[in-house]
Every structure is written in structure tokens, then in C-alpha cells.
């Protein structure tokens, strides 16, 4: 009887060891498989990045290397539409800045396998756009190493613009990866300045015997007005922030030239504001001319009416744009 109990106890012990091995072995094998899969993904991303700073992805690559676990690296994705038939000029401009940023990271001493830059073109990954319910381009998103993207992981392109420096600052906030932007040398400004100096120098040389035009008040006033119009229309803001020229709604194809927020603007909007300010200024000049000149009364009356019309109409237009950007502004004049 004791031998039977001993054999039963031995069988139970063997059975317990078998179940323990059955539970532990697959888990260890699965962990090893997970590590191997992660290593393969990192190696593949590093290989692609060594060939090109921005990795192009279709739907399958996006789901495997960006969305699917395991993943211990962050991915910056630019969703865009670069094909000529899409006629997205903003996409091309944003892509140039994105390439500058990716190259700055790729060739920096801090480059590692913790951050990768990728791009998904609509014509190569339309299913990705549908999966993310994305209806505009370009769009920049950060996919963190752990967890799902949050609201702050989508770059606020309309408010900040797409300059490389602004993108680098956003990436530093989301990933703690600091990227120093290195731009390729651009000699166009130097060449333009040299041409301008040459032109002015040549003009002064040709008119060296008569330099009275330098003291022409009207000429200096026109030059000063050009500078004022450029600055008050937001050209310096455009230069710093690098906003898109305009925005085209991909759903209905409607193009917006005026930004709906008071915190941002389009390049086309600054051009419109410049022309409106110039028209109002022209109206004021005509009113002043009508009041101070000593010519024919009928002619002065016509000049006065034209100047008044310019001021009234274009100031109304300018005020309506102001109302559309500063929601809740109560005042309007002629045009709402």
C-alpha cells in the first residue's frame, strides 16, 4: 500500500513539473521571439535611414513599423500629397523643411535608433489616411515608443508654420531629442545684395554730375512706405514662421487665403493686407492733394471723391477681414 502511495505521489510530482514547464517554456519562447522581432524592425529602420533620411512608407510598412508593437523608438510621420496632380504647393514647401530637419538629425553626432523620420504620401497610402480619419495635408504626427499618440503629438501647422526650427522644437517637447538644424548654404541673398549694390553704384556713377535726385523727398517717401507696408502686412512673421501660401480643403477643393484664427496667417493674406493698406494710403494722399492743391475746383472735387471712395471701400474691406479673424469683434462698416 505504501508503495502505491509513493508511486502516486511521484506521478503527481512529475505532472506538476510538466505543467510548470508547459507554462514557462512558451512564455520564454514568446519573449525571445518578441525581442528578435524588435531587433529586426530596428535594424530595418536603421538600414532605410542610412540610405535616405526620410523613410517612405506605404500602408503595410506603416502598420508594421509604426503602429504594430513591439517598438522602442519614436517615429515622426509627415502625411502629405506630393504628386503633381494633387497640386499641393504647401506640401512641397513643407517637404523641403522636413528634409532639412531629417538631414540635420541623420548627420548629427547624436543620431541614434531612438527616432526616425518617415513620410506617407496619399497616393501610396490612402488607406492610412482613412484609418486615421485624416482629411488634410500636410500633417505631422509623432508616434511615441510606448502608448498611443496624444493630441499634442499632432503638430499645429496652421498656428506655428512648418519651418524646420519649429518642427525641431516640437520634437524636443515630445521626445526629449534635441536637433540642431543645419541648413545648406544659400547664396541667393548674398547675390541679390551684390546685384543691388552694383545697381545703385552704377546709377550713382552714371548720374555723378547730377545727384539732386538723392534729395528727392517723394522718392524717399515712396521707399519708406514700401518698407512700412511690408512690415505691417506681416512679411517678417512669414519669414520667421514659414506659413503656407494658402490652404486648400481636400474635401471640396475650396482655397482659403485668409486664416480663420488671430494667431496665424497665410502668405497670401499678408499680400492682401499689403494691397489694402496701399489703397487706403493712396486714398489719403488724394484727399490731401485735393485739399492743398490750387488747381481747378472741379478737378479737385473729383480727386477728393476718388480718394474718399478708396479710403471708405478698402478700409471697410480691411475691417471685415479683422472681424473674420477676431471673432466677436462688434464693429463693421459697409462690408460685414
TrEMBL record:
Alphabetical list of InterPro entries matching this protein: OligosaccharylTrfase_OST3/OST6 (IPR021149), Thioredoxin-like_sf (IPR036249)
Gene3D superfamilies registered for this protein in UniProt: Glutaredoxin
Places the protein is found: Endoplasmic reticulum membrane
Keywords, in A-Z order: Disulfide bond, Endoplasmic reticulum, Magnesium, Membrane, Signal, Transmembrane, Transmembrane helix, Transport
Range of residues in the leader sequence: 1-30
Matching SUPFAM superfamilies: Thioredoxin-like (SSF52833)
Transmembrane segments: 187-206, 218-237, 272-290, 302-322
Similarity-based family: Belongs to the OST3/OST6 family.
PANTHER family reported for this sequence: DOLICHYL-DIPHOSPHOOLIGOSACCHARIDE--PROTEIN GLYCOSYLTRANSFERASE-RELATED, TUMOR SUPPRESSOR CANDIDATE 3
Protein name per its UniProtKB record: Tumor suppressor candidate 3
UniProt organism field: Salarias fasciatus
Amino acid at each position: 500500500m505504501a508503495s502505491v502511495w509513493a508511486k502516486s505521489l511521484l506521478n503527481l510530482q512529475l505532472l506538476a513539473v510538466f505543467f510548470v514547464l508547459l507554462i514557462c517554456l512558451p512564455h520564454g519562447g514568446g519573449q525571445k521571439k518578441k525581442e528578435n522581432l524588435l531587433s529586426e524592425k530596428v535594424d530595418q529602420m536603421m538600414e532605410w535611414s542610412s540610405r535616405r533620411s526620410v523613410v517612405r512608407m506605404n500602408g503595410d510598412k506603416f502598420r508594421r513599423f509604426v503602429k504594430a508593437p513591439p517598438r522602442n523608438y519614436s517615429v515622426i510621420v509627415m502625411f502629405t500629397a506630393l504628386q503633381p496632380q494633387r497640386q499641393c504647393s504647401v506640401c512641397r514647401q513643407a517637404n523641403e523643411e522636413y528634409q532639412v530637419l531629417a538631414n540635420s538629425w541623420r548627420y548629427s553626432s547624436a543620431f541614434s535608433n531612438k527616432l526616425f523620420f518617415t513620410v506617407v504620401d496619399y497616393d501610396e497610402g490612402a488607406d492610412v489616411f482613412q484609418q486615421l480619419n485624416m482629411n488634410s495635408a500636410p500633417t505631422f504626427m509623432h508616434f511615441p515608443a510606448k502608448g498611443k499618440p496624444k493630441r499634442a503629438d499632432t503638430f499645429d501647422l496652421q498656428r506655428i508654420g512648418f519651418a524646420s526650427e519649429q518642427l525641431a522644437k516640437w520634437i524636443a517637447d515630445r521626445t526629449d531629442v534635441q536637433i540642431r538644424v543645419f541648413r545648406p548654404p544659400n547664396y541667393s541673398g548674398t547675390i541679390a545684395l551684390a546685384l543691388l549694390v552694383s545697381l545703385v553704384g552704377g546709377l550713382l556713377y552714371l548720374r555723378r554730375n547730377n545727384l539732386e535726385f538723392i534729395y528727392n523727398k517723394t522718392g524717399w517717401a515712396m521707399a519708406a512706405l514700401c518698407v512700412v507696408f511690408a512690415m505691417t502686412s506681416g512679411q517678417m512673421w512669414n519669414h520667421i514662421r514659414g506659413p503656407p501660401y494658402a490652404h486648400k480643403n481636400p474635401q471640396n477643393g475650396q482655397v482659403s487665403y485668409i486664416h480663420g484664427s488671430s494667431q496665424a496667417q497665410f502668405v497670401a493674406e499678408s499680400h492682401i493686407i499689403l494691397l489694402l493698406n496701399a489703397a487706403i494710403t493712396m486714398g489719403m494722399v488724394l484727399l490731401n492733394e485735393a485739399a492743398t492743391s490750387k488747381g481747378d475746383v472741379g478737378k479737385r472735387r473729383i480727386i477728393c471723391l476718388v480718394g474718399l471712395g478708396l479710403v471708405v471701400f478698402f478700409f471697410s474691406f480691411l475691417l471685415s477681414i479683422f472681424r473674420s479673424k477676431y471673432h466677436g469683434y462688434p464693429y463693421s462698416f459697409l462690408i460685414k
